[in-house]
Amino acid sequence: MKKNFRLVLVPFILSSFVFISCASIKEIPDDKTAAQIIQMGQNAAFASDYKSAEFCYNTAIERFGTDPSAYLEAKYELGRCYLKQKKYEKSYQIMTELLELYDVHGTALPGAYKKLSQICISQIPEKKLADIQAKQKTKSSNLSATE
């Protein structure tokens, strides 16, 4: 009898944790650090709750955007989140923005996110990447023509 009780109780408890952990994040306390907010976003992304993950990363950027390390990490994670959702253009825009920051600020930034951004871009399907880059080139040409 005890064994049957465990067979019922354990799955019930585990499913309760999954249900609770999948609840959408609507508010982040003001006392959370950048690392804590980014971790909340990573947990949400791991649970495929991309809306909450985006909310966390954007909150980290909004609150801690003046800290280069926090900004890079949150932006990178946001780009990865878009990649997982197959929002390739948004992911590409973020990753190229990060790479441009490295072009300007170089060694003043933590090195890992440069390589990770390059890897992320390489994970965009070739056809999609070519389309995005062609679209970006057309936008650049149009901007140059209007100036």
Helix-strand blueprint:
Blueprint: H1 2-21, H2 34-46, H3 50-64, H4 68-84, H5 88-105, H6 112-122, H7 126-146
Helix pairs in contact: 2-3, 2-4, 3-4, 4-5, 4-6, 5-6
Brief description of this entry?
By secondary structure, the protein is mostly helical. The protein has one domain (33-146): Alpha Horseshoe (Serine Threonine Protein Phosphatase 5, Tetratricopeptide repeat), CATH 1.25.40.10.
Overview of this protein structure:
- With 147 residues, the chain is mainly α.
- The protein has a single domain (33-146), classed as Alpha Horseshoe (Serine Threonine Protein Phosphatase 5, Tetratricopeptide repeat).
- Helices cover 78% and strands 0% of the residues.
- The protein has seven helices and no strands.
- Helix 3 runs antiparallel to helix 4 (68-84) and helix 4 (68-84) packs antiparallel against helix 5.
- The longest helix is centred in the last third of the chain and has 21 residues, at 126-146.
- It starts with a helix and ends with a helix.
- The model is unreliable at 7-21 (pLDDT under 50).
